[in-house]
Fold:
Amino acid sequence: MAKVILLVLDSFGIGAMDDCEDFNPTDCHANTYKHIRERVNFLNIPTLYGLGLGTLVDGQDAPLNAFGSSALAHHGADTYLGHQEIAGSCPKCSNKRLMSDIHGMLADALSEAGYHVEYPWSDRPVLLVNGACVIGDNLESAVGNIINLTADFKKMPFTELKEVGKVVRQHVDTSRVIAFGGPYTSIEHILSTVHEKNPGQWGVDAPKAKVYGKGYEVYHMGYGVNIDGQFPMIAARNGLKVYRIGKTADVLHGEGPSYPIVDTDEVLRVLEETYLNESGEAAFLVNVQETDLAGHSEDAEWYAKLLNTTDQWLAKFLPKMEEADILLIMADHGNDPTIGHSNHTREYVPLMIAGHKVKAADIGRRNSMADVGATLSEFFGLPQTEEGESFYKQIL
Structure:
């Protein structure tokens, strides 16, 4: 009855990818880990360093466990798309769209689908659907990447909001459509936060809209993503229990226990508690999100403290792992807090695999993070994921 833990340190990149010039040339000197280490004098992560990080970044002697790195196969550097890739699929290349370009087409499509659509302002490309849901540009991501649907759940239940989101998803080719909301705000307050962040980029200021917190729910819809070909859905169809802890509860589709936690200490506590209490075969898909939030905040000190916390937890947890189990640690992209902006950076990510039965092995630089999903499927004897090449036989 083996168990696998996939621990994603969100945004923990180890150096700009060779193709960064094609995506964001200003990021070609990004190196999230090294620049944090240079900026902060109290970073202390001997466990991660000894599991292979030191070999990957400083050429230290190879560890006694398996290690390697991975490129990002999806275009850009995105948490949602990165996790779809990790789970075993490769999202299609999307296009950048602003509501100023597509609002008319979306209004027609939603009206045709039976929804009441109106423009709260004649000079703003923002839609109001059924008097309860605002559709606009995402103001937190790169311009044109995401369309947001922000709802007052007292007027539009989450189940209905997701259906509206699916109509939008069918008609736009942005990397993501995100439908979210909460019951402790109002549509009037949501509308009051709409503003223009960049020229032509109009949307809801989500934090000020008071949708986060108690009762908050979110549904991510990626472009060209086949969730049925991903490890969590394959596992669900074959009766394997999958825990989703942290941001994976929001960005990975699946069934089974779900814990959408942000606080790092709580994420690690719940992971350890559920792992030790689980007597059967299971997978644990975990995301430490606060490292990414520290990157977005351009706060290297906060980032370093979170890494120290995680490393100290790992040092205590690794001896508790059972004989047949494995722990795989990686990232989904970079987010260099020293680079001069608050967006993700397109970087290679580390892969470190530990466990009593894991052998010393250099699995090299993988071409796609989908290799992880493929490996998880092979480990549990499940059908193959849509994408990815398993490294199962190389590590055990």
Notes: Residues 99-222 form one domain. The two ends are 16 Å apart (CA to CA). The CA atoms of residues 193 and 205 lie 5 Å apart. The first helix runs from residue 32 to 39.
